[in-house]
Specification:
An 8-stranded mixed beta sheet has the order 3-2-4-1-5-6-7-8, sandwiched between helices. 47% of the residues are buried. Helix 10 links the parallel strand 5 and strand 6. By secondary structure, it is of the alpha/beta class. The two termini are 18 Å apart. It is elongated and about 65 Å long. The protein is built from 12 helices and 8 strands. Bound molecules: guanosine-5'-diphosphate (GDP). The site of guanosine-5'-diphosphate (GDP) has 18 residues, from helix 6. Keywords: Cell cycle, Cell division, Cell membrane, Cytoplasm, GTP-binding, Hydrolase, Membrane, Nucleotide-binding, Receptor.
Length: 304
């Protein structure tokens, strides 16, 4: 599925709102800027990031007093794309991974329901397509369903999985997973974790214990801590990002369910507020529906 299709709800909404924002106008004036501010805020870009973007556009308008509204799209795309670049969103070209000694370890965090398991399954599929051998670790031992769902995905995409029974120590599962991956010379390990936010100290301790135990086998593990957020939940996603970044060092974001929302602007706001690169976006339930986030392509699609 194409990015344009996946983002169609947000695209249509942004297009409509932008058209309304400039109707009857030829120049970018204060009223257009006010309207633009509203377009961005109602697309879940977030207030702070919106103000930052508006400020930059204001600056350009002050230099070019006769800036036409026809140029607004291009300027928006440039400014947002620059903003994302400043947040370290460097585009990776495919599902290739840096060469290293031992498996590349991705620890996946996020609350239940955001699409964590699905994202892990999709990642496994893509890495496998890219010729990598993948091992999944079912370290969300809190819910039986989490282990079962991960097993379903492992079977579906035909990768191995390491699990123990429900209620067992997540760190022990992570340890077993890395040991197995190392023994089989696997390229990439993806560890699922339980995202129970009601107890921040508990979450922090659990994640740091998992890390410590993994480092007994792969000293620099994890290579990536991927926070999965539901892109259709706006402020909730911001709140979860705040909690998880306090609990552990998050190195990358995956924003899911962007196909189901008209508010895909959340991708821009979250990346900007937390200075964490968005690496993947989910635009559907199937394994083909995970894309590498490419900022220019994303922005072009949104404001086309
Ligand atoms: P978890 O509890 O975080 O592991 O969440 P799941 O992976 O079980 O996903 C919860 C629901 O969201 C499932 O019905 C998934 O099919 C659905 N889902 C996950 N990612 C996406 C996405 O990108 N788009 C859509 N439309 N649905 C998604």
């Amino acid at each position: 599925e194409s990015l344009d299709e996946g983002l169609s709800k947000t695209k249509e909404s942004v297009f409509k709102k932008l058209s309304r924002a400039v109707v009857g106008k030829s120049k970018v004036d204060d009223e257009v800027l006010d309207n633009l501010e509203e377009v961005l805020i109602t697309s879940d870009v977030g207030v702070d990031t919106t103000l930052k973007i508006i400020e930059r556009i204001e600056e350009r308008v002050s230099r070019d007093k006769y800036m036409g509204v026809s140029e607004l799209n291009t300027i928006l795309k440039d400014e947002i794309s620059d903003l994302l670049e400043e947040n370290n969103t460097t585009d990776v070209s495919d599902f290739d991974l840096p060469k290293k000694d031992g498996p590349y370890v991705i620890m996946v965090v996020g609350v239940n329901g955001v699409g964590k398991t699905t994202t892990i399954g999709k990642l496994a599929y893509n890495f496998k397509q890219a010729g990598k051998s993948v091992v999944l670790g079912a370290a969300d031992t809190f819910r039986a369903a989490a282990i079962e769902q991960l097993e379903v995905w492992a079977e579906r995409v035909d990768v191995s999985i390491v699990k123990q029974k429900m209620g067992s120590d997540p760190a022990s599962v992570a340890y077993d997973t890395l040991a197995s991956a190392k023994a089989s010379n696997a390229d990439v390990v993806i560890i699922d974790t339980a995202g129970r936010l009601h107890n921040k100290v508990g979450l922090m301790n659990e994640l740091s214990k998992i890390k410590k135990v993994m480092q007994k086998i792969v000293p620099d593990a994890p290579d990536e801590v991927l926070l999965v957020l539901d892109g259709s939940t706006g402020q909730n996603a911001f709140e979860q990002a705040k909690q998880f970044t306090k609990a552990t060092e998050v190195t990358a974001l995956a924003l899911t369910k962007l196909d189901g929302t008209a508010k895909g602007g959340v991708v821009i706001g979250i990346s900007d507020q937390f200075k964490i690169p968005v690496k993947y976006i989910g635009i559907g339930e199937k394994m083909e529906h995970l894309q590498i986030f490419r900022r220019r392509e994303f922005v072009d699609s949104l404001f086309s």
